[in-house]
Design a protein that fits this description.
The structure is a homodimer. Chain A is α/β, with parallel strands linked by helices. Helices cover 42% and strands 16% of the residues of chain A. Chain A has a domain at 66-107 and 231-445: Rossmann fold (3-Layer(aba) Sandwich). Chain A is built from 18 helices and 15 strands. Chains A and B meet through helix 6, helix 8, helix 15 and helix 17 of A and helix 6, helix 8, helix 15 and helix 17 of B.
């Protein structure tokens, strides 16, 4: 392990907006009522105007406000690390670098967007944020950000995680958030789901519906999402912008850029600043890694779909498994989302980024090798990126090529040790949805506008 | 929060040995059989010769071997951080700085000594390390270090923690260690304790006895201790040596230096390089903070005592509650030790360092304020140091003095969230041993050599 630090003064002062460099335009989000492209006013009940502007901005660089920069400096710039221990174990001629986002107080890349989202809300007089969380990474990040900027935060936490991850709950409580198990009795949609099925274990789609309903029905409250949206991906580009400066210090440039994908934000955060180079002619291989259990990019369809189960969000063009798809309960809870960020879906569709899917056990194998050789116990989500990097490094070995691999280690696994427990005990299994399950999931997009 | 980083090149290249600067000599450790001062040969069954030499060295500076430096650079230099959020919340004119040791893969300062201990053992052909752990911080650090230098590690983990902290166990497993609940059926002493009391929940004293027995009875195995010993404190001085460089960059120098104390190593690590300045005339106030539940410095006696329950270790002169003392089950498991490092005990006795004790709930109050204002959720052990810093900052406010406070944040609380759960639920209570309990504990030192 060899670390490359940036000084605080070298932290990027603007985010990078890939919309400015795309050769083809992504399909616009639609108002589900009218079927017409969305206007800023459609989003106004949910988001502050500054974020809506970012969502639709064509500007290449968007300045990071001073108070956001100051808050990000709690943990940024994050280190770039050369995984010399892993290289040695794999006997690869490749150089493996990773950007380590687990250094944030919440333990992942999520505060990179929670902090600016809280800031812009506070600037526009919002008092309270409603949001959802799956595994708890996003909810704890939003709790932290709310604490920093003096906002109340209510988190709808997917029931299965609420019960399995009490420590993520305590973390959110430590940062002053209110947490409820979703589906909850606190919203109309939650009550409806519970009436139909009191034992429903929840899903990200349901929790989003609850948080959106909460925000849409209270004047003092806006909604916040931890992935998928353009402004979220924008905020995460600080990862790739830092990485570029650090790779320059290291004296090399990546041939392959890898990240795991759930909603797409950590991958996009690292990849988009490099994708700009590829659009401009550079030869870089981009690999988005997802779980076979929730194979949005590798087995989903590109279609207009809702972001949530209750059909409360706009319709967005994206790879999707259908907004009612219930992925199996794998330990990479952050990757269990039916859709994929529209901007990332667009560049996958354009052939700029390739998608790969891996099974749960082989992902934990890679995570375990990493823990032994680099010391860091990765989040199960991030272990997908590690598995991608391990395979790329083995390819390089077999081809005898000195490739430079760069991946995003989006978070640590300190709150996922029960999954490692199960792994060490040999109790983990793989899950792949059948073709029938996928077809059933996708059937919900049939009546919607076509791409 | 404002961070001050050191570059890897500025990481100290030697440790600081306070023995070279003490005006009075500490009392020597004794062979319990002969009552005579210990020679190197007495320790040879347990430790490699390089560590025995360090234990007894009068040299001021001891070089850090290159491979140890390389391994420490996994996470070092650790950041020095100015707690601007906490300062603001306390409305204090004091500047509060802390050294953050939670950045290590194990989450605490413990790898600072686990890494060199593993290295010296490996250099002398040792294949296997036996050690004990209370809350799991030390065991996981030794597991990590064993992994780095190719040693097998067996950890005797105090039963109450073994059952309460399964995630620390998984962490040790991830780093390849073998873990057993102590008292265990794997040693004579463990079997004896279990025969007398099958429900014995264990103590650090018992676990040390088991690990020492394991090491003393196997040719391929040595013993490793995570605190108390001179060479452990020596290795931890890298904290204070880095802090001095970083405080210089910050343009100031501490008036008050604070750390929590269990065995004494994290406190000594930060404090000893500054204590040298005090010995040479500087006006610095040193505060060692312990729990009222295990009040070794504030209510114990300075005496010759054993380091372990089974009386297998040498006799050392230290503040002690008696080697059979069973501290109540507070959440700061790392501070539940009956003794205190002889070197630290010596400087407390000489009046160079003052001791303070705090109750459990007020310590968690301080930890909770810190989590809200600085974002980092502290280990319950480290929250004692925070409480010390908070009180010092309030004193400064009341006196209207711009004091500079420096404390050691020895670890994060990611594996202690159940304690925060109990705290948020209002379920934590305070425990103070009665005078009778303390007198009973100390009675075991009566037949031993006098100081």
């Amino acid at each position: 392990m060899k670390k490359i630090f940036l000084s605080e003064n070298d932290m990027p002062k603007s985010w990078y907006n890939i919309a400015a460099d795309l050769k083809t335009e992504p399909l616009p989000p639609l108002n589900p009522g009218t079927g017409q492209p969305l206007g800023p006013e459609d989003l106004a009940p949910l988001f502050p105007m500054a974020l809506i502007e970012q969502e639709m901005s064509p500007q290449r660089e968007i300045a990071i406000p001073e108070p956001v920069q100051a808050a990000l400096k709690m943990y940024r710039p994050s280190p770039l690390i050369r995984a010399t221990g892993l290289e040695k174990a794999l006997k690869t001629p490749a150089k493996i670098y990773f950007k380590y986002e687990g250094v944030s107080p919440a333990g992942s890349h999520k505060p990179n967007t929670a902090i600016p989202q809280a800031y812009y809300n506070q600037q526009e007089g919002v008092k309270r944020i409603a949001t959802e969380t799956g595994a708890g990474q996003w909810g704890s990040s939003m709790a932290l950000a709310g604490q920093i900027f003096g906002l109340d935060v209510k988190v709808y936490m997917v029931k299965v995680s609420y019960n399995q991850k009490p420590y993520r709950r305590s973390m959110m409580q430590s940062w002053g958030a209110e947490i409820v198990s979703s589906p909850s009795p606190d919203t109309n949609f939650g009550r409806q789901v519970l009436a139909e099925d009191p034992d429903n274990t929840g899903s990200l789609g349901i929790a989003i519906s609850e948080a959106v309903e909460d925000a849409a029905t209270r004047d003092d409250t806006k909604y916040a999402l931890g992935s998928v949206l353009n402004h979220v991906l924008l905020h995460q580009t600080i990862i790739g912008l830092e990485a570029k400066k650090q790779m320059e210090i290291a004296g090399c440039s990546p041939d392959i850029v890898i990240g795991c994908v759930g909603g797409g934000s950590n991958f996009a955060g690292l990849a988009f600043p490099y994708l700009r180079d590829k659009i401009n002619g550079a030869d870089i291989d981009f690999r988005a890694i997802e779980p076979t259990a929730c194979p949005t990019l590798t087995r989903g369809a590109f279609a207009y779909d809702f972001g949530d189960t209750a059909q409360m969000t706009p319709l967005v063009s994206m790879y999707t498994l259908g907004h009612t798809f219930m992925p199996p309960g794998i330990h990479a809870g952050g990757l269990r989302y039916h859709g994929m960020a529209p901007l990332l879906s667009h560049v996958v569709r354009e052939g700029l980024v390739d998608a790969y899917a891996y099974d749960q056990v082989e992902v934990f194998d890679a995570g375990a090798i990493f823990a032994r050789t680099e010391g860091i116990i990765p989040a199960p989500e991030s272990a997908h990126a590690i598995k991608g990097a391990v395979d790329a490094a083995i390819e390089a070995r077999e081809a005898g090529e000195e490739q430079v691999i760069l991946f995003n280690l989006s978070g640590h696994g300190h709150f996922d040790m029960s999954a490692y427990d199960a792994y060490h005990a040999g109790e983990l299994t793989d899950y792949r949805p059948t073709d029938e399950e996928l077809a059933k999931g996708l059937s919900v997009t049939e009546g919607l506008p076509k791409v």
